[in-house]
Specification:
The chain has about 80 residues and is an all-alpha fold. It is built from one helix and no strands.
């Protein structure tokens, strides 16, 4: 009986180290997952901002090009076709 208790105590001590290591690894994995999630969200936000800036720039360029064509139509010279 005495020997059996010693084996149980040894097993509990060995498992307790594994449990603490498992908890530490699980917390590490969770924080790594959150880090990747935040980086994806940041990339999506940056992409949306860059697309919005590109669209506004394109709209401004198109508006200037239309105005330039209107002005050019009024100033048509003899060498323009």
């Amino acid at each position: 009986m005495e020997n059996n208790n010693y084996e149980i105590n040894t097993e509990v001590v060995a498992v307790s180290a594994a449990v603490s290591t498992g908890i530490s690894l699980q917390a590490n994995a969770h924080s790594t997952g959150l880090m990747f999630e935040q980086s994806v969200l940041t990339q999506q936000k940056d992409f949306q901002l860059s697309m919005g800036n590109s669209m506004m720039s394109a709209k401004k360029l198109v508006a200037k090009k239309i105005r330039y064509k209107e002005i050019g139509a009024l100033r048509k010279g003899r060498f323009d076709k």
